[in-house]
Structure formats: structure tokens, C-alpha cells
Amino acid sequence: MIDREQVLHVARLSRLRLTEEEVDTLTGELSSVLDHVDKLAEVDIEGVEPTSHVVPLENVLRDDVPVPSLDRDVALSQAPDPHDGAFRVPSPQAEA
Amino acid sequence: MSDIELLAASGAETAAMISSGEISAEEVLEFWLGRVSGDQLNGYLWKADNEAALAGVNVDGGALTGVPLAIKDIFCTEGVPTTAASKILAGYRPPFTATSVRNTAAAGMPMLGKTNMDEFAMGSSNENSAFGPSLNPWDTGRVPGGSSGGSAAVVAGGLAPWALGTDTGGSIRQPAGFCGIVGLKPTYGSISRYGMIAFASSLDQCGPLTRNVTDAALLLDVLQGRDPCDSTSVGIEGGVSAPSADRLDGLRFGVPRALIGEGIEAGVLARFEDTLIRIADLGGEIVDIELPHAGHAISAYYVLAPAEASTNLSRYDGVRYGLRSSDEDLLSMYEVTRDDGFGPEVKRRIMLGTYALSSGYYDAYYGRAQRVRTRIVEDFNTAFSEVDFVVTPTSPTVAFKLGEKTADPWTMYLSDVFTVPISLAGIPAISIPAGLAEPDGGGPELPVGFQIAAPAFAEQGLLEAAYALETAIRFDGSAGLAGGAA
Predict the structure, then answer these.
(1) Is the ipTM of this complex over 0.85?
(2) Are B220 and B359 found together in one domain?
């Protein structure tokens, strides 16, 4: 179960400005999915290590040699608002 | 050389025609670009012209030079639109090319176009594409599967000889099964993920969708290898070669009977049982096995994959590329852009993943799911101490109708009940066509996939077994082949 308040909280964490309708829909859908997912509580995981990656690898290193990266112009070429060699964004605070 | 012969030829057969001088690489490309331009399946989101198809392609790339390829729109291609079927990346032209696409170009394969998919590879039907679903060439009222649905549809529907896809929880195998072609998900780490737009990084893997098992082997050999740009890529030691086995003597095939129960269509089960008999006819041994935790795989997957997705997709924020919907203030720019740019399934998974990782819920969801994943890995390790392969149907149903499963997310998620456990274990699996079957409730006969899984990096053995079985089954895909172009 997840309630409307929790959905709004998670939407803020997710940086999603959901419409009222989306909040309603997602409250129902996420609750339903979580009901299924909650069945994981049936599995005995006592003493079991978590798996984050399946291929055993350690210390994948390369020689510390600098190589060219993307040119600044190329890196900026897809930006919605490139400006003066940088990514321009709106002010963190709305104009009064 | 007739058009019909070229249309029906596999990648390897096309390569042989080119090298024997029967047809030129130019003629082959012209033929396929003509097919692509008549796409009736919404299989392609972007179609190459002659010049774009050949950009960066090695004209002396070896045995497969001149055999063109369709590429899932999740692979970054320099200067060529790459959207992952999302509105948030509409118009994006990456400044670099994915390693897999570099490798196929270096092997001499022109790019026919970029194929449709579920948005950010999240879906099992292609209905989550922001640009409308791709259609199944066997019945255009039905889905091709997903997420690599466009890649499967174009190969099955005669709009490409072969294609690249990606598989996170079944996204190559399930659409291959639905469209009556071969789909291979290699071991995690076989192929570089560099330039493959990330969904769930501990699960995502590139792989081939092809007309037959030989093509899957040849394409895998081009794709596999270690890449300094992806530190998780290790390649397959010694590579892989075209399979030649005609018998299965001495090989043991494990059937997880408890998993193959509820929700499976009668026709799918019948083709599965037929295939087990063929295995026995070829000298293989059928053994019942247990995968005690595999029934929890979908639940674990729908914590882990959304959790990884929620972090991977945080990069779409309106700053560096893609859509920007608001300039009001910084927070509004992030939030409005993301609400506008992402489709419903992507939002659902971002929300689910963020919730599973959020303070107070991490241990109960993410931590627990990672431990259940360990249990599933152990189940396969135990199984492979007794058998060489694990076999299941690829999906519990044949291709379903457009709109049939969109009302309830969990119903759609269950399409991947046989493919997801294998993804969580990171092991390789292939889907081959096992024949045709009617859906429950009647309808046209549609392809059924048979899935074979093997231990990590045992791709050569997997391909040999699949080849022997394919040769015995002699599946006829010509009904689908005719369905793709006007």
C-alpha cells in the first residue's frame, strides 16, 4: 500500500510534477504492484548476501594516461540553451 | 538472384552470395533500403538513405561485409537521431557511437535504420513507444513483444536480414518468440554497454535478433569483447563460431516444472512438450529440476530494475540534451520537463524505484530484492551442477492483441515470467521458434518460442544445442516474412 501523500513525496524526490490525475492513477497502480512485490517477504534471506553484480570482477584499472574527450562545442551542441561555453539554466529562484 | 531469394536469405547466406559474386554489396543494400522504405509495421523510427547507411562502415570488414543490419533505437549513433522511443530525447543526435554499432560497422555491416521499442526499453509489447507501437508481421492486430519489438518485427517481417536489440528482463527473447525468429541474450559482460542508453545497468545486455541460430552466433562473435569504455565488459574467451552439432547425445536438459504452471496457454505448452520430445529424439536427456525461488523473480525484478532506472534516468533533466519544457525556475524546469517528456510506464518505474530506494524503505525493498536475487543465482548454480541447460517456453502466451494487457501493469509484467529469472542470474539464453499455436480462445496460429539457458559464458554450447534443435524443428517463417512491407 502507498497513499496519496507518499506518492506526492516520491514524485518530489523523482523530480516529476505530476498532474492530479496522474497522482490518482499512480496511487492505485503503485499500490497494486507493491502488493505483489510484498510477497518477497516470504523468502528466507537470513544470512544471504545481496547481489548487485553477477560477474566477478575486481579492480578493473587502466593506465593513467590522459586521452582527449569530446570538444566543448560538440558536448554543448545538443543542449537546449548553450551560452558562452556553458549549459545555461533558469535561476533556482523564480523571478519575483 | 531473385528478390524472393534475397528476402528469405539469412545474414550468413547473404554474405555467401556477396562473396561468391552472385550479387554485389551495393545491390544488397539497395534491395533492403527499398524494403525499409515500404515499412508497414512502424518498425523503424528512423530510416537510413544510402549515404547514412554506409557512414563509417568498413568496406573490407571481413566475411559479413555488405550484410545490412537494423539497430534498436537505444544505441547511440553519432549524428543520427537516437530517442529510445521517448519524447524526452526527440531530436537528440548523439555526439558519439555505441561500441556495438562501431563493431558491426567495422565488420562491414551498413545500418538500415533505428528500430522502434518500448520507451527506454520498459515494456513487453512495444505499446510504450512514444511514437506508436510496432506491429507483429504475423498479425498486425497483435503486438510484436518488447522491448525490442521493432527489431523483432523488422527481421520477421522481411524489413532487415538481422538486428541488434537489448535485453534487461526478456526484451530480446520475448519479441523473438512472438515474431517467430531467434533471439539471444548473452551472458552479462559479454558485450560492451557503452553507448547503449541505460535502463537497469546490472541487467542490460546487447544481443542479436536473427533468422536462425547460425546468424546469432556470427553476430555475437562480432559484438562480444572487452571494451575499455565499459569496465563490466569481459567478452567471451575465444569468441564464438558457427555451430554445427546435429545431435544432443549426453546432454541434460532441466525442466523447472513448478515454474511452468499457471497462466500458460495450452498451445504454448503443447509446442513446449513437442520440443522436449525432439530433444529426446536427438539423444538429449530431459530431467525435472527445481528452481525454488524463480517464482519470486518478477517481484524482485520489479524492485531492482526500477531502482536502477530511477537513478539512470535522473540524467534527463533539461540541462544538457533533449527536451526542456519550462524556463520558469530551476526546479520547475526539472519537474515539468520530466513530467512532459516521460510516458506513463517510465514514470511508473521511476516512482517505484525511487520509493524502493527511499529512506525507511530501502531495506524492506531494495535490500531484500538483492538478497532474493542471490537466492535465484544459487538456484541456477545448483541446477547446473546436474544439467547442462535449463529449458522453458519463452513466454506463457503467443503474441497478444494490441491493448489486451495495457489496463493492469502486473499482467503485462507476467509476460516475462520465464525470461526474468535468467536475467537476474546474468546467464545466457536463446529463444528459438518451436512451431505455431493458437491463442487460448482461438485465433490465428502464431509463433511459439522455446527458451534454452546455459551457465555463464557457455554460449558456444548453447548455440550448438539450439542449432541441432532448430535443424530438427525446421520452422517455416515465410508467413511472417511476407507481412512487413507494402
Answers:
(1) yes
(2) no
